[in-house]
Amino acid sequence: MVRLSDLLLKVGRQTPAWKKANRHYRYGMSRPWTIQAQIQNLPGRGRPKVLVEPIKEWKIFRGDLVEVLKGRDTNKQGIVSDIIKQRNWVIVEGLNCHYRRIGKMPGYSGTMIVSEGPLNIRDVALVDPSDNKPTDIEFRYTEAGEKVRVSQRTGRIIPVPIVDSDSRDYKTKDTYIEQPKDSVAEDVCKKTFTPSLKTVEAELMEAYNIQDPRTPRKTYWY
Fold this sequence. Notes:
This protein is an alpha+beta fold. The chain is built from five helices and ten strands; from the N terminus they run αααββββββββββαα. It has a six-stranded antiparallel β-sheet with strand order 6-3-2-1-7-8, with no helix packed on it. It has a two-stranded antiparallel sheet with strand order 4-5. A two-stranded antiparallel sheet has the order 9-10. A hairpin with an 8-residue loop joins strand 1 (65-68) and strand 2 (77-84).
């Protein structure tokens, strides 16, 4: 007879990890650190959470020139301005646009603006700069051991745009200036842990000078 607890435990183990993570947060166009994202995830809004299977290895980055493969903007090309990996979305400048109204108030109808909507990563393809046609990409290693993107059709190396390294803290990694909140490189490289074959209990007893005359039973690691 199978117990209910064992059955639930078995089902839980079969659930992919990506379905367990962030199941209480709804990702959208607004980034998590913005006020708009916090408003959209206020308690009691009742908006259904959306989970998508993550892509193991992203081959398209910000600043890439891509071509749309599906939808009303099929065969049009544009630059990727943003990526939302939690939803497998890419935002392409000037493509998949829609109108929305902002600033509406009593006596004023507001202003209509154009916004780019998200595109699924599988609905766009990277453009090969050698012939300006979409191509599939694979990662390879050069003789120097550098990991690069290579067009499967032409074999041309397509470097990752420098725009992709742009973040809220720096434009490029080389131009970053250390801040007071940063850890000093000397402290980061300092060796603070010495590995040993002792158990955690044995290390704590040795650190606090705790004596135990009992002989611990053998432990086997597989």
